[in-house]
Amino acid sequence: xxxxxxxxxxxxxxxxxxxxxxxxxxxxxxxxxxxxxxxxxxxxxxxxxxxxxxxxxxxxxxxxxxxxxxxxxxxxxxxxxxxxxxxxxxxxxxxxxxxxxxxxxxxxxxxxxxxxxxxxxxxxxxxxxxxxxxxxxxxxxxxxxxxxxxxxxxxxxxxxxxxxxxxxxxxxxxxxxxxxxxxxxxxxxxxxxxxxxxxxxxxxxxxxxxxxxxxxxxxxxxxxxxxxxxxxxxxxxxxxxxxxxxxxxxxxxxxxxxxxxxxxxxxxxxxxxxxxxxxxxxxxxxxxxxxxxxxxxxxxxxxxxxxxxxxxxxxxxxxxxxxxxxxxxxxxxxxxxxxxxxxxxxxxxxxxxxxxxxxxxxxxxxxxxxxxxxxxxxxxxxxxxxxxxxxxxxxxxxxxxxxxxxxxxxxxxxxxxxxxxxxxxxxxxx
Length: 430
Ligand SMILES: [Zn+2]
Known about the structure:
Elements: E1 19-27, E2 33-43, E3 46-50, E4 52-56, H1 67-72, E5 78-81, H2 82-87, H3 91-96, H4 100-104, E6 110-113, H5 116-124, E7 152-154, E8 159-162, E9 169-172, H6 174-184, E10 188-190, H7 202-229, E11 237-242, H8 248-259, E12 265-268, H9 277-287, E13 294-296, H10 302-310, E14 315-318, H11 320-325, E15 329-332, E16 335-338, H12 358-362, H13 365-373, H14 378-404, H15 407-418
Parallel strand pairs: 4-5, 4-14, 5-6, 6-10, 10-11, 11-12, 12-13, 13-14
Antiparallel strand pairs: 1-2, 2-3, 7-8, 8-9, 15-16
Helix pairs in contact: 6-7, 7-8, 8-9, 10-14, 13-14, 14-15
The structure holds zinc ion (ZN).
Zinc ion is lined by residues 351-352, 355, 357, 359-360, 386, 389.
Pfam families: TGT
Protein name: Queuine tRNA-ribosyltransferase
Region (Disordered): 26-45
């Protein structure tokens, strides 16, 4: 077969169906322009005003919430995971259903994570990006966390991995990931990349980054081929994923390499320590094309949100609001508290006074405390509604503050209150 010459920098005509407009730029007190900005992403299923928090719906559901609840709490888009949906129920099922949005009954924009992270991290036992701060940086390249079996093996062409569900062996490659993500049909997809850990040597990071670059080219080629083959479907945007761990030169190189390719936007992923989050996002924002959106993959807490926005992330996702809700933790402007405490037994105030979410408008802490103690599933739903609303609202307020030129005042005010470490002022004494 003759070698085909594919130019990864050449755009596809259908890419015009996806766009990003930069709005107001963040400035410091002296009038200098910073990487942060507002903007609007336009997809075939609607617009996303950025910066935006993207609700996580890993298995085509935001845990414990109906799509109407997700919409009413203010979320603009949902991010599902290609790895999980590939294993169960199978990407062909979503394709037959008309894609992720129709399958799950969500009418707005959708994202899928490529599956690279899950394929490579579920087996190694290392947790999501920012949780990796405790990792010893000098370990061997094939390290796994204590008590874990390595379940993924990377080669030049792709990855063999073991299903976390039933132990069966599966193969992901750039082409397979693109095929799976086209079948799932989200508006925004991510290129298949290799996840390294902070424990990998610099030599391995360099090698891996080159592989991720070659995989990025293969992802674009296969993505455009599938776009032509499935030309009656709405265009699905493809974001390249920036790796490079904690190394400035590697992160910048990855941005320049992938930034020159015909991606619709970029994801900032991989190993990074919480304290370096802003610095790394900042390097990427300096190098990546200004007119394309940047998604920060997987963050955790309110301080990360401000750091991400300030340094130029347009969208980000986070499992915390629903995950902690299932352990009865709820967000307030004064920090996160645990509703299981006995102090809430007779607390007939809402989770947060003045909160406009459905849970706070209709229910008291005492009632939700009771539901949680009685192991009633409605406690998960109500706390998840509140926590998602709290997070969406925080990001929306930050967006408005950028527009009004008051971002840093807003940030200082929120952070001072949230991290003051005071007991819940609205609650009963402990
Ligand atoms: Zn609320």
